[in-house]
Amino acid sequence: MKVHAVFNRDGGTFRTMDMDLFTQTAKDIFEKHGHSFQSEVVAGKDVVKALKRVATEAGAHVLMAGGGDGTISAAADIAWKAKVPLAVLPAGTMNLFARALKIPLELNAALESLASGQIEAVDISTANDESFVHQISIGFQPQMIKFRNTLTYHSRWGKRLASFRAFLKAMAKPPRFSVRMTIDGFPTERTVSAISVSNNPYGQTMLPVPDDVNKGELGVYIAGSLTSGTLMKLTLSVITGSWRRNADVEEVLAKEVQLHFPHKRRSAKATIDGELIALPKDVEIKIHARQLKVLVPLRPDQEQDRATEGAPPL
Prior knowledge:
Number of domains: 2
Organism: Phyllobacterium ifriqiyense
Protein name: Diacylglycerol kinase family enzyme
GO molecular function, one term: kinase activity
Pfam family, one: YegS_C
Keywords: Kinase, Transferase
């Protein structure tokens, strides 16, 4: 297997690391498992350009991306469109897609698990022309991120503190907006405070991460018209893992979702995989089952089978 990695040196974990030492460690680990490995470390502003170049190189087999969720989301879009496998190296704050793929969050452990892993096909979704591997959100989350972007932070913990401060500010006046939804052909109109549509439904943990990345269904999460008090209760139910029993949240599974915002403001925003975008008046969301190839760790049963059969990795 040939692996070409692009590491975002401005990613949370990489900012304080000796990247020369790390890239050599990565090369040693992959070569130990019989693979060829090369890498480049680029500034955040150059990551997308580098990823696109590597994805279209002749003979490139696996595109590895190292960075936060924004870097990984961009890499997934590029790998999907170029039809090359993606390897995810978690170096951000939340690392949501890496968690969904069951990749260890400690970097050396992640390298080992990927070097001994295998390529599988997983789901990817689109909102109009934008792909996502986590979620698209309208309402509360974009408002919170807009507030967070007005704050200054210089570390992973600084970002978390800024997010908490932004959450408190957004909670003081939750958004409310009208939306016409068509979910798998069934129309409805609501006034809500938040809508999130995820690439596979969320699992049972506090973090919004799916248990299965191959379910082939969108998770649609609708929060009714919230007050500060009901939003606080919803937050507590998320923390305790009981949010599915909260009367203010509705969960629907679907293949396709159309959203229309009849009174959309020109400044309205959405987030796709945590990145702010302008909110279109009409959004069509689809899941593309098993269309993204990814390098993932072996499951315990697969490790046992490989050891029994004496099969070489990949």
